[in-house]
Structure prediction request, 235 residues.
Amino acid sequence: MNKAIAEFIGTFTLVLFGCGAAVIAGPAVGATTVGVLGIAFAFGLAIVAMAYGIGQISGCHVNPAVSFGVLLAGRMGVGDFVQYVIAQCLGAIAGTAVLYLIMSGKASGWDGGLGQNGWGAGYLGEYGLVSALVFEVVATFVFLVAILGVTAKGTPVHIAGFAGMAIGLTLVLIHIVGINVTGVSVNPARSLGPALFVGGQALAQLWLFIVAPLVGAGVAGLLYRSGALWSEPAS
Prediction:
């Protein structure tokens, strides 16, 4: 139960402050915008904060794709995986609900967006389906390579101690490149929360932000399990 609560809090924080930066400090509300770099760091810093806040409890997955990659890498059981995913999705929905409540108090200038992911005409850089799919698969794969590598058994202490920072900065990098492509998901729960509240196209396109991250994470997890990328020392 402690692990589930930690994952709920972690995913809640990621969605509230990551998507919150995009909505509250983004150009759509007509305020001074933090830009792509600011939004990227909001997501990354949320991960850094939670990595050191809840990492020792649950590992700070805060992402069903991360949990899936960890599962396929042989580092967690199916029971924990199911518990984590439920907690993550509920946390993302709760984070979006709080963001919605905050934005609903704005007198004018809000277009109803909640940092939802998407692609195609009218969405940010207007990239197509293939571009969105390729980016989300590759970006999630890279994200999991970083996570599984820096948290692997036998990782030198001087590296493992900076795991939260390394993972957070990897997410910053991914967002800098990908915000204009899909808004960056690499996390089915992060996409689920806003899509449920916004509906319409965001909900219709949600499938990609579930399937693509799971594929990218799954490939990384299987590579680690096979020993192709990392051979954990014998106990």
In short: The first helix runs from residue 2 to 24. The radius of gyration is 17 Å. The chain has a mean pLDDT of 93.
